[in-house]
Amino acid sequence: MSSNCLSIDIFEAHTFAALPGGSLAITLGALACHGVAAFTLLNTNYGLDLSVVPVSTLVAFIIVAVVAVANVRLPVENLYLFLFPISIAVLLAANLIEPGGQPLETLSGGLVLHILLSLAAYSVLMMAACQSILLALQERRLKHPGEPSFAILPPLETMDRLHLVMLWIGLGLLSASILSGFLFMDDIFARQVLHHLVLTSLAWLVYVVFLSGHYLYGWRGMTSDVGEFQTLNGEEFPIWVLLSSIVVLTCLSAYFSGTETAMMALNRYRLKHLVKQRHKGARKANRLLRRPDRLLGVILVGNNLVNFSAATIATVIGLRLYGDTGVLLAPWVLTITFLIFAEVAPKTLAALHPEGWSFRSVYILQPLLKLLYPVVAFINWFSNALVRLFSPHQGEDNENLSTEELKTVVNEGAVSVGERQSMMVRLLDLESVTVNDIMVPRSEIVGIDIEADINDILDAAATSQHTLLPIYKESINNVLGILHLRRMARLVNMDNFTKADLMQLTREPYYVPEATPLHTQLLNFQKEKQRIALVVDEYGDVQGIVTLEDILEEIVGEFTSDYASNMPEISPQEDDAYVIDGSAVVREINRALHWELPLTGPRTLNGLVLEYLETIPESNLCIQIDEYQIETLQINDNMIKNLKIRRLEKLKPADHDEED
After folding, report:
1. What's the predicted TM-score (pTM) here?
2. Which member of 24, 106, 171, 622 has the greatest number of CB atoms within 10 A?
């Protein structure tokens, strides 16, 4: 760092010694070295250093750079006599004083740009303020010849032109600083920085009013064209002023275009969540979105006003530069410019970051809507009248989401919640699944026959893996009650207990229709204070048993400690096939192997194959259902006992269109 600063001292010292009439090349060389030194001081290994010494070095560099640029067209080299000693003193201080500030490590690139633009604007406008003081002293010297002379300074007219140049450059940098803060600062409207925004906006407004009045009404007594240094008669603006207006209007158009896209791209559900969190920007955006016609009205009024103004100015520029040919070329050039910088680029950026853009824009849109409300109200009234001619039932569309739409929202919009996302989707699926789909079939029901010997009953209870057992007589269609095995512990210490004692511990059986949807049955379990139900068909015959645990497993997945239930019917083979029991439930096979066997027909794999064949095969055979190759291995008692299934590679249709 020290060697860089010393080299700059030498360059500027040589330049200073050569003045007046110093070499421009040497001046630019010294300026370049000064810029490198400022960059090195600011950009440390630990982050951006905004302590006094680095910032002072940057400010001095910007001031000298502005004067050096102005010196190309204005004879202001005498000002170097004031500026170069200041720059040399700042650089010497950088060599002698160790940086005392704490570097900022976590700043984003956009925020760094905002800080640098703010420093640049401050530097130039501070120089313009000093310039105005020198102008006042020079004018006073002209009115009072006896006071000390300022002959070393450039002429008054040159100083006035330099003052205007600095104001225009400072205004441009200040505008860029405000725009970058709007784009890259998340808390630009926070209370702790709101006063900075208000004061900066007032300063920007003062500069705009002054420069506008200078060119429109000749404030300060003269109007200088920085490009040609000619006095205007007030009937036309310089070309560079018109071009600057095009740039400003392009930025405004980009703001309106991006805001329209961002507001329409907001996630309504996340917006409601942020409103509940009392996010200020979200609450304002939500209020605006309640009346989309007014929101679009104010955006489109502003955008069209800006676009047509830019088109008018572009036509004037084309006419003055190229005559009638320029008038023809202006729309084409302006269209390409606006498409890139005022449409495609800002809308793409707004679509990528809708919240950041929208929550800042609403602070401008709300007062703008109040300002333009009469115009917006009239346009909305007229446009709504036209819309009613083509859509008389507008506003009657149901905005409530269907189950399938809600599942899509969960799948696409909750990618960061892991297993909870799958649970939410399965919860929504309960509506399309009945108790018949998940029940334990009649043939697999484990119960106690009250007609059995008392010792057999005790053995069955002791070896049961279930807590609740149905007590039946002769047939499962004749269920007498449901026994909780924990209650049976009361009979263990009794010397003699009878079947009547056992029946006193049971509760009445609870029956449900086989077509009951799971979400309904879950509520019924809660309402009836039950945990197990017997599933019956339309004839009243028991078809199976469903428990509360079965329904909960449909939501959260398997959590039972019953290891015998972990799909022993599925045996993987070496050739990537599976030997599966014919009584296995198709839903459980799909869940265990992540397959997509049809679920609209029979419950079991045996039933699925028999339905496809429409007959009971007499010998083993091989079929294909969708992308699954199924081979029967054992057929007994009119039932397919075992099957071998292999999933083939899913075939893609020849006319399949590639998704975007």
Report:
1. 0.50
2. 171
